[in-house]
Design brief:
The complex is a heterodimer of chains A (about 240) and B (about 80).
Chain A: E1 8-9, E2 22-23, H1 25-35, H2 46-56, H3 66-82, H4 91-145, H5 148-157, E3 159-163, E4 170-174, E5 183-186, E6 192-199, H6 206-219, H7 221-227, E7 229-232
Helix pairs in contact in A: 3-4, 4-6, 6-7
Chain B: E1 6-10, E2 17-21, H1 26-41, E3 45-49, E4 56-59, E5 68-72, E6 76-77
Parallel strand pairs in B: 1-5
Antiparallel strand pairs in B: 1-2, 3-4, 3-5
The chains are: A alpha+beta (about 240), B alpha+beta (about 80).
Chain lengths: ~240, ~80
């Protein structure tokens, strides 16, 4: 990027934020006078500004000519445009520097965001795998503890029958309706006459829930009936 | 049944956890009983079950000789 010299190209944007492609010293100079915060008076002549600038410039020293100052100013402006350091006389340079920093922060943020998303996806995949394994293990335990007749009924109908250990009533335990409200009391004609809603902790997989229901119905029916919410459906035949 | 391994199946979020012990090994029996007691304290109920389902009984105390027991979480009304 070059910002000075006759016919020099500076890219897309000049010191004042104006879009352009070719500038010479005169253009820069005129622009500087027009836009300078310090010298806004229309009566100020170019000579006055120039002399003042030369006398106050930090690079001025004995033997410095206006020519060397001018070249230095042009070089300095280019450096500031690149964003080498903060300079109050070069707001665009500061803006570019800030934009670059913002872009870097944005890229860093995007990278962090992506990493976090990947972590979440990995954790979710791990959770799903663990849940699938738990469901499989629970179903294996259920099947291991059902009678052959119950296993066949579960495979064929999605439910199995359990005889109440104390009452000798027949209950239908559905295995494909979740584990709340999936137990039905049957009458002598195998019609559903009441629904029971009872389950173990929600953290326990379905297979374990069904086995818990079956075990309680068979070996501790009184406790299950006492704990469950019973909803009558129709009168027994 | 002496000399054969005993099994405790504990229903939990992993599907179930199997704990095995030798009834002739005092240390293993103690460990199994300690586990049993801790689960009962949490509200679990223990059932002695036969392989293949159908048979069994509710246990009120730890029986180191029980061939297979199921530790079932407490039920809640829905």
């Amino acid at each position: 990027m070059v910002f000075a010299g006759t016919g020099a190209s500076i890219g897309d944007r000049n010191y004042y934020g104006q879009t352009g492609s070719t500038y010479n010293n005169d253009v820069i100079w005129r622009g500087w006078i027009t836009n300078s915060d310090c010298y806004t008076s229309t009566t100020t002549s170019t000579d006055q500004i120039w002399n003042n600038w030369c006398s106050t410039a930090t690079i001025a020293c004995t033997g410095t000519t206006t020519n060397t100052i001018w070249i230095r100013w042009c070089d300095q402006t280019e450096q500031n445009l690149i964003g080498g350091y903060q300079n109050y006389n070069n707001p665009l340079g500061n803006q570019l520097q800030a934009a670059a920093a913002m872009q870097a922060r944005s890229a860093d943020y995007q990278a962090q965001l992506q990493a976090a998303q990947e972590r979440r996806q990995a954790e979710e995949a791990e959770r799903n795998t663990a849940q699938q394994a738990a469901s499989k293990r629970a179903m294996e335990l259920l099947r291991e503890n059902l009678t052959e007749k119950q296993r066949k009924a579960l495979d064929k109908h999605g439910w199995f029958l359990v005889e109440g250990g104390r009452s000798k009533k027949t209950y239908r335990v559905y295995g494909d309706r979740g584990y709340a409200g999936n137990i039905f009391e049957l009458d002598d004609k195998r019609k559903e006459i009441a629904r029971y809603c009872v389950h173990a902790s929600y953290e326990i997989p379905l297979g374990d829930q069904l086995l818990a229901q079956a075990i309680y119905l068979t070996l501790d029916e009184e406790h299950l009936i006492k704990t469950a919410n019973r909803t009558p459906m129709r009168e027994a035949a | 049944m002496s000399g054969m391994q005993r099994i405790m199946e504990i229903m939990d979020p992993t599907g179930h956890t199997r704990h095995i012990w030798d009834p002739d090994n005092e240390a293993e029996v103690e460990a199994a009983e300690a586990l049993y007691d801790s689960l009962i304290e949490k509200g679990y109920r223990a059932f002695h079950v036969a392989k293949g389902g159908g048979e069994g009984n509710r246990m009120d105390n730890f029986d180191p000789a029980a061939s297979k027991m199921l530790l079932v979480p407490q039920l809640k009304g829905g």
